[in-house]
Here is the input.
Amino acid sequence: MDALNDFVLSAGDTLWTWIVFPVLAVLGVYFTLRSGVVQFRLIPEMFRTLTNRTPRDASGEPQSVSAFQAFTISAASRVGVGNIAGVGTAIAIGGPGAVFWMWTMAFIGGASSFIESTLGQTYKVRDKDGFRGGPAYYMQHGLKARWMGILFAVVLILCFPLSFNSLQANTISATLSGSFGGEVGWIPWVVGAVLAVLTSLVVFGGVRRIASVSQAVVPLMALLYLILGLVIVGIHIDRLPEVFASIYTQAWGTQEVAGGTIGAIIMVGAKRGMFSNEAGLGSAPNAGATAAVTHPVKQGLVQTLGVYFDTFLVCSITAFIVLVSTPDLMNAERGIVLTQNALVSALGPWSNVLLSVIVFLLAFSSILGNYYYGEANIEFLNTKPVVLTTFRVVVVAVVFLGSIASADLIWNTADGIMGIMALINLIAIALLSGVAFKLLKDYSQQRREGLDPVFTRARMPEVTGIQCWEDELSVTGPIDLPARSRRS
Here is the structure.
């Protein structure tokens, strides 16, 4: 088993280091330049569109989930234990300088996130709950390559709702066991049973229930973690200038930590950032496509804001907790242990309990977000109700089994699978990026005219395969149609 785990780890590292990361970085730079740095230029628009009113149907009900709810579904998946354990690992290996490259990759990746989520909205389809879509859908309808969509859907289902959900459950179980002072045999079984019940109560309610729970949990966990970080930074406020200085000066390998060269520092920071914010990997568009908005670009901007929320807020909180509390990183333990030690040194042993609560919220919300990614792709493969019900039962079982299982091999396998998934998606968005750039131009033109942008297929007749966006009435809803003429 150790030999298999070592092989999978080596193969996954090779795939990410020499193929996925270079492609992701190059495309991110290209999208940044071609879009006129959309991820920075339109930051005010990101906040404006986040709170846009959701278009209604003829009965006055929302057509689907809101832009904010879709944002929280994707944030639920993005913001997980990787924001605590992954950042701790990056700092232990690459030192404070890894944080700089984590930020840099998030900024570059923001453009990729904009492209993929705009495409997800463009090629979405209607279902009984509103809308669904994602990479599999724009591969089929945009590229006319259903085989590619099927391949992507299968890989995503193996990775997110199955592998990653078992790992999130395992992390909750391990953290709670640690809070009780070590291995207590019955704890994983109880945690698994409770998680399975909670998961089933949410996922069997469909995307709207997932959206409602995510809308409540994601802001709560972010606020709780932010307060915790501010308290610890406040205790060590005198170290803050030194920490900022170390993040920028050590990003260039001038003061290596644990033998890290500048190449290792860049790679570990960038990779942990990618794993955390998922920009360009093809996961977030599955959530973004669920939103009812009046223009595809709106949700592209909202999902770019999701990358920033994940990295610049949640990951940065972890980084500052560690760096202000741990002046000496030589021989520091990796992963969540580093963050735990930083908390205990600043606040005392009781903070382990608080961290357990935060980890539970992070991991459980990720389970819900990861599940929905799988649901959107299960329905791409087969729309029979019995297939979806079976999938939900399997996910609940995986959550239970993950709580009592060993995780190393699953972690490494899932990372490798995610690399394959990312490559498939990157090829697709590179080929379809011209559509996203045309949509951005259309959106910007309408904003210059003082309008709240509305997109219909007639505005881009040369683009084929668009399933929704038939006319203004279907896009804005009969109640909101007069808003078209309002200045925004």
In short: The longest strand covers residues 125-127.
